[in-house]
Amino acid sequence: MKNTSLGATNPKGYPVVVALTYSMFFMFAMTTDAVGEIIRIVKAEMSLTNTEASLFHWATMIGIALSGMLLGFLADRIGRKKTINLGLSLYGAASALFAGWASFSWYLSLLFVSGLAIGVFKTAILALIGDIATSTSDHTRRMNANEGFFALGAIVGPLLVTTLDKQGLPWVWLYLIAAGMCAVMIIAAALTSYPESVVEAKAVSVDKGSTDQRSGLLTSISLIGNPYALGFSFAIALYVACEVAIFVWAPTLFADYVGTKSAMWIATYAVAIFFVLRAVGRFAAVWLLGVVDWKIVMVLFTGAICACFLASSLLGKDAAVYSLPLSGLFMSMIYPTLNSKGISCLPKSRHGAVAGLILFFTAISAAFAPLAMGYVADVIGGGNMQAGFYLATVFSILLLLFSITNLVLDPAGRVLASADKSEY
User: Fold this and answer.
1) Average pLDDT, the chain
2) Which helix (H) or strand (E) holds 363?
3) 3-class SS at 80?
């Protein structure tokens, strides 16, 4: 079988394309992961409950979920480059329109559209990473590197919103900056040559009418029956539920915290510290995964995450102010590693579709987990977000159990080994 990976066809590795993937991860993280700070501001400005405020995150994630499931095939059907430019154009337009009206419904509508756009260009990026990678292990390391830049954007976004708020400027400037970044990336992408994908390579040698019909509208939905795609998607959903708990609700949890001077400083910058540690961990994971089996690292890191959440639940806010930000260091490698393994279990010709399925589970979890936490906090906790974090602790326990099962049974080991030989 012809090896269509980038490493085999071009030893230089398309550095401009790689830089663009890093930039796109950075840009959309800058907006999506700033939602906790935005929620803190709009709750006061619009007199919202926890459940209502969580819709600012929910709207984007629902958009991503629908796009990943229904439009994930675009990267396989029309190509990575066209799909990326389509998604960036839609995202840039939605971001620019934040300068229009200032209403709850308007903001939710734009956040939903921006979620649709993210789903379009992110599935194409994930498929593109597969085109560039030279093995399943290289795919995992590249995914961690891209998520490292996502982590950097997640640091900049909340800090930018906080700075804007302190200067008396509206938080919508964050989206106007993102719109400008989109314009620059669209121009750069249009002028850059991309690696040839598997589907594009096949299209050269066959009639247009006989191209692979599996990359149609229902491809991502059909992959629900694939045990590897479904298993990794479920694990990712559990991880995302733990991660979003912190950057969505930690600012609210610590809003009225009173403790030592150092503890109160950490509480103020808890999300920023969490993202800094996550960024450090993701770049370190690129090295770590080269020397330690990924399944072992998964168990160690999910165990540490579980310990952090248990400490916050059992010992209260005095412990949570330290343990929740610290969990970012251990969350670093989990999402990109699970994502890359799930994608690598399928042929490259279906990487766009499986990326869409995984993105669907990612976004559904990101939408409903914080919503559930807000509901629990309102109904059971009387508005106290500590009750919501009890639910997040349950998610962390389930994630640890999955990691242990994966280490003991290694259900995907054989198919990943086969992909190394046939796809890379």
Assistant:
1) 84
2) helix 351-379
3) helix
What is the DSSP code (8-state) at residue 346? Answer: S
Amino acid at site 212: D
Could you identify the residue written with the tokens 């159990």?
Answer: 401
Q: CA 126 → CA 130, 190, 227, 254, 363, distances in Å?
A: 7, 18, 20, 35, 15
The C-alpha torsion from 115 through 133 and 232 to 69, rounded to 10°, is 30
Task: Write a three-state SS string for 214-248.
Answer: HHCCCHHHHHHHCHHHHHHHHHHHHHHHHHHHHHH
H or E segment to which residue 368 belongs? helix 351-379
CB contact at 8 A, 301 and 333: yes
- What are the counts of helices (DSSP H) followed by strands (DSSP E) for the chain? 21, 0
> Across 265-364, where does the E strand assignment appear?
none
Question: How would you class 305 by CB atoms within 10 Å of its CB: exposed for 0-12, middle for 13-18, buried for 19 or more?
Answer: buried
Q: Which domains are assigned to the chain?
A: 6-196+215-422 (1.20.1250.20)
First-to-final CA distance of the chain: 10
Please report the sign of the dihedral spanned by the C-alpha atoms of residue 77, residue 81, residue 84, residue 86. Answer: negative
Contact 276, 127 (CB under 8 A): no
Tens digits of per-residue pLDDT, 223-272? 777 888 889 999 999 999 999 899 888 988 888 888 898 999 999 888 88
Residue 113 CA: distances (Å) to CA of 26, 89, 95, 301: 19, 11, 9, 34
Burial per residue of 141-173, b for 16 or more beta-carbon CB atoms within 10 angstroms, e otherwise: bbbbbbbbbbbbbbbbbbbbbbebeeeeebbbb
Kindly report the three-state secondary structure assignment for every residue of 89-119.
Answer: HHHHHHHHHHHCCCCHHHHHHHHHHHHHHHH
Instruction: Tell the residue number behind the tokens 């795609």, with chain if given.
Output: 229
Nearest-angstrom CA–CA distance, 262 and 265:
5
CA–CA separation, 267 and 257 (whole Å): 7
Q: Are 55 and 73 in contact (CB under 8 A)?
A: no
* Total-model pTM: 0.73
| pLDDT, tens digit, 9 for 90 and up, residues 193-214 | 887 665 554 444 444 443 444 4
